[in-house]
Amino acid sequence: MQRRRLGEQVQVSAMGLGCMGMSEFYASVGEAESVAVIHRALDLGVEYLDTADIYGMGKNEELVGRAVSGRRDQVFLATKFGQVRSADGEFVGVNGRPEYVRDCCDASLGRLGVDTIDLYYQHRVDPATPIEDTVGAMADLVRAGKVRHLGLSEASPATLRRASAVHPILALQTEYSLWSRDPEIGILHACRELGVGFVAYSPLGRGFLTGRFRNGEDLAPGDARTRQPRFMGENLHHNLILADAVRFLAEEKSCTPAQLALAWVLSRSGDIVPIPGTASIGHLEENLGALGVALTPTDMHRLEEVFPLGAAVGERYSDRGMQTVNI
């Protein structure tokens, strides 16, 4: 397994595994299959496992905890706090208050069945709580030995700078792919200026760039993507042109569309760690094959022609969801 530097302090596997979809938001799978995927990932040298307290209302952390039991030394374990859901699963806001930080960490440690979280992210920035207060409480967790490193997710460059002045931030996690290139507007520069690693979630465009989704009927009932603007109506029809371009270029490279899309993210810089999610061993192995795909300057130029900044039509999230990103 190739390795990459995450921030200035840590090296991890060059690709991680996003575990969210094993418990919620996409087509559901059984626990045995999900655990098998995690075990296969560890066998292949994947260290970075990514979860959050809201995924499956805590069930994803429990799943990951059971999967890594007995193999903790092979895992760089990342989880998140800060998004708040009601008992029925509805998203009701963001909370970064210090007392909430402490309570969430203790709850996550219990569900994961571990003594220490390797990387603890604030999932979304709370505009009602100064970032200095939130990160200050997170830093207390480091001093208490409950957390090794701190991270932020979907934070703006200004927030990242303020947070870094309180305590070193190991990583910023934000959506980044061929059709979500927003981090190139300031965020990646700020990370490099501050020595912060960058973790790219949804590097396959929520699976769209694999070419598996041609219309809304290809998504399972209840799949969260059916409510996301890029997968709806005329936006979807336009974006299919982008997916077709990836498929065509992948055929020329003798790789799969997923491998081409991941190879592009990997090629952007050696300090970017993508964490594609999957609940399939086949897709896991396919994704890892991207580490062997080398893109030539010609390949990069052709991809740039098809996927300039802002190529995808539609926002990443609903209007409400977009209010919580880049804060």
The computed structural class is alpha/beta
- Cα distance spanning the termini: 34 Å
The residue fraction in helices comes out at 25-40%
Assembly classification: single chain
User: So what's the overall shape?
Assistant: globular
Task: Note poorly predicted spans.
Answer: none
Q: Strands of the largest sheet, in order across it?
A: 3-4-5-8-9-10-11-12
Order of helices and strands: EEEHEHEEEHEHEHEHEHHEHHH
Biggest sheet, open or closed, and with what strands and sense? 8 strands, parallel
Brief overview, please?
The chain has 327 residues and is α/β, with parallel strands linked by helices. 38% of the residues lie in helices and 16% in strands. The mean pLDDT is 94.
SSE order and pairing:
Elements lengths: L2 E4 L3 E4 L3 E2 L12 H13 L4 E3 L8 H10 L7 E6 L1 E3 L5 E4 L3 H15 L4 E6 L8 H13 L3 E7 L3 H10 L4 E5 L11 H8 L2 E5 L31 H21 L3 H12 L3 E3 L6 H8 L8 H10 L12 H4 L5
Parallel strand pairs: 3-4, 4-5, 5-8, 8-9, 9-10, 10-11, 11-12
Antiparallel strand pairs: 1-2, 6-7
Helix pairs in contact: 1-2, 2-3, 3-4, 4-5, 5-6, 7-8
